[in-house]
Amino acid sequence: MAPLFETLLLATEHTEFDRGAERVAFDLARRSGRLLDVVVPVIRNLEYEVGTPDLAERQARETAHKVRQLQAAAAREGAALRPVVKPCESLHRGILEHAATQGADLIVVRCRGRQGFLSNLMVGEMVSKVATESPCSMLLVPAGAPPWTRTALLALDPARPCPGLLEAAFEMAALGALPLTLLAVVRSGLQGEAETLLRQAAAEAERRGIAANSRVETGDPAERIRATAAATQADLIVVGRHREGRLLKSAFGTTTKKIIGLTDCAVLVFQPVRGDD
Predict the structure, then answer these.
(1) Which residues contact 230 (CB under 8 A, 6 or more apart)?
(2) Distance from first CA to last CA of the chain, Å, rounded?
């Protein structure tokens, strides 16, 4: 089966908030042996450029310096980079346009940034806007998160299967040679159905050489996922999402938003390709 994540795109402004996303993206590119596309979105203001050309030139120099820093950091990590500076009217629009142009399968991006920081504690404003119209899966990374080395946690919803989610978790676990924890958080009375699903998933993981264990929990999904991630020392959480018609209904569901906001590790939000869900 062809890999789900062939075309990787790192979206970064190269700020303190982007450090985790950059580290994880470089490591992912190195492990997979794939070229990493990088988009550095820059707000373009024609009036500003015409009226204050010296400031515009300084901004261009600073952006070029950021790109050189990214290239040097990627080289140190053994990752191949293809950076593009994207002038745009808004950060999220620049990222989405480049993702569409490159046919990205996975966008790696920070969780939050300076803009809207206090009012968007769970997910940053720019990230929410990207997620609402994202053409592909997203890997959201806190600033302090390192590349994953310990274990991955896959959260499954037996009541609403997400096509391709299991394959996505297997792919990421295999890239990091990670054991995989399979978790289903269900309402009381649905434990049997969840246990059957997890047994099948664990058997498939074993067939692929991935060590897996499974858990069925009841309670608040976000809290149980967070607690399980902490208990297993997971440094990657994999969850699924669904399309509603042509575009996604919203940035993220409440549970996913809480998971992203309350955990310190990378969260892969897997999105089935159009037509699969």
Answers:
(1) none
(2) 18
Give domain limits for the chain. 8-141, 152-270
With beta carbons less than 8 A apart as the criterion, state whether 224 and 185 touch. yes
Longest CA–CA span in the chain (Å) reads 68
Q: Give the Cα separation of 6 and 145 in Å (integer).
A: 23
Alpha helices in 86-233 (DSSP H): 91-102, 125-133, 165-176, 191-207, 221-232
The model's pLDDT over 184-210, given as tens digits with 9 standing for 90+, comes to 998 777 788 899 999 999 999 999 999
Which pLDDT tens digit goes with each residue over 114-161? 554 444 556 888 998 999 899 999 999 999 999 999 999 999 988 888
Q: What is the DSSP letter of 252?
A: -
Q: Do domains 8-141 and 152-270 have the same CATH topology?
A: yes
For 72-87, what is each residue's pLDDT tens digit?
A: 999 999 999 999 999 9
What's the pTM?
A: 0.91
Q: Count each helix (H run) and each strand (E run) in the chain, helices first.
A: 9, 10
Average pLDDT rounded to a whole number, residues 212-236:
94
Give the model confidence (pLDDT) of 35-69 as tens digits.
999 999 998 766 655 667 777 788 889 999 999 99
Length of the chain, please? 277
CA dihedral of 169, 273, 32, 204, whole degrees rounded to 10: 30
Looking at the domain 152-270, which fold is it?
Rossmann fold (3.40.50)
Place of tokens 């939000």: 269
CATH 3.30.479.30 holds for 8-141? no
Cβ atoms of 90 and 11 closer than 8 Å: no
Task: Give the residues across from 268 on adjacent strands.
Answer: 139, 238
